[in-house]
Request: fold
Amino acid sequence: MCGIIGAVTGEKVNQILIDGLKKLEYRGYDSAGVTLLDGSGLELYKYAHLNQSIEKLSVMPQVNDSMAAIGLAHTRWATHGVPNDLNAHPHLDCSGKLAIVHNGIIENFRELKEMLKDSGHEFISNTDSEVIAHLIEENLSLIKSEGSGADEFLRAFSMTLKALLGTFAVAVISSEYPDTILVGKNMSPVVVGLGNMGNFISSDVSAILEHAEKFVYLQDLQIAAVTKSSLKIYDFDLSGIEFAATPVTWSYKDAQKAGYETFMLKEIHEEPYAFTETLLGRSTDKLELYFDEIHFDPHELADIRKIFLVGCGTSYHSAMVAKYAIEHWARIPVELDIASEFRYRDPVLDSTTLVVGITQSGETIDTLAALNFARKSRAKVLCVTNVVGSTVTNNVDAVMFTRAGPEISVAATKSYVAQLAVLLGFSIALGRFSGVLFKSEADRYFADLQNCASMMEIALGRETSYRKLAEKFKDTRDFFFIGRHMGYPTSLEAALKLKEISYLHAEGYPAGELKHGPIAVLDSNTTVIGIATKNKLYEKLLSNLEEVRSRNARVVVVANDSDNSVSNYFDDIFYVPDTFDLFSPVVDIIPLQFLAYELAVRHNNDVDKPRNLAKTVTVE
Ligand code: F6R
Reply:
């Protein structure tokens, strides 16, 4: 996710903005920029030097010598448009009089861009964000032409925000209105800081913590008009809104984690947002809406006879979910491969095969090598990644981006659910494309998929009870996670999470396989966790759990809220909201992420940086 900072004070703001950018560095970024407004107009400096842009800005004489008392700055994590200087924020309008910074995704930017181009606006970037600057300019000139004077900047800004679909935090300054920052939001965070020397805005309180005494968190569909000595808050119809500013007692380190104990906990709580962002602008009827930057012509997919899904670790688990979904909805045969095995096993590939590489980082060497091999074998190659501009995007025929934002904790959490979002959405769209699903069916599935974000929110609201239940197993050293159908990938992912951060022994198994060997190791020291949410093999799973119980293993289940009978059989239950069975992995993993988390904390482990692990594995 991008980071935004703005400052309006009675003194120079250059250092405040550069320091603020440095404070946002921990989130990861691919480019950074700053705009400073003084008597001679807007100055704009921006760079896309991976992890060096802020350093570059901080030594620029033009930035250091600026006397500007108002300005905006931005760290970018690309979603639309590769990381380069032009795509970096801030973005200007045609006149160069106003500059915006944006965090989020503008779903309808293509339509807006076409409309603005028709009105004569010229665009210089490939971002969705640039439309915002031009649309404010367009609205401003409309309001001015009507001669309706007062509050024209504010009115043009609110008109603009009302026209945007998607998620956004947008801040704007203009040389025509040089003492005001306007900022508005929908879903992406904005905090306004009130200080003695002036006022500040940011997407992350850590960036402005040291300059402000009191803070106001802007709510969705609100606009703040900020000057050096005043703050006014409005709704998008410009009715004034009462607010209360409160102090924040966090340290800088706490503020980076938004008050959570660890990045992992923060990222688990960001899952619904990552999920929703990833589905924005995508639908069932247009397969092309799934491709970013590098596109297939969907017709190229008409000849596809087989799909291979490859990935490592958590990305492999989302591939498994996608296999079930694609075969079910699109009726195309899918093979699933661990990326490090794929190219060595002589897979049969040709131009009628599609190979999909799934990699959060876009840098995992085994996945890169698998996709290179697929390309050389003339297969069509698609990648799913969270990092725009990552190596994987250089050698593929098409790209689908997840929009989880930077994931700092080594253990993948929000990037996993974002992968599930795009892969499940793509599977439905593929079903429609291959003519297997009717439009009404596909639309219904897609709406249910989008609704999973609310189910995730409900599950996250149960954090305390999940962690309390997890505490019961603090002395257990051996865990088996078992599931069937969509419970199987969840059991693999839950076991991986537990191993990674708690260092306990955990296995994920398809429940039906247990009696073919592993059941021999079960005894009263083992805890078996059954993914018992409703799917077509629910009854069979319950029988498998009975087999387990008769070996004296302790049994715990993940079950749906509507399951009235499960409490007759089991004492320890992680309840989760009901979902359509193919979507259940999205929600069912949440209590199990908390289980892994709680046990890691109980064992005093470094949750964000588990031993022996790296976030990105770049060696074979
Ligand atoms: C699990 C985890 C790893 C990664 C794996 C692949 O929490 O983080 O298993 O999923 O190393 O990484 P990417 O997706 O970056 O290719």
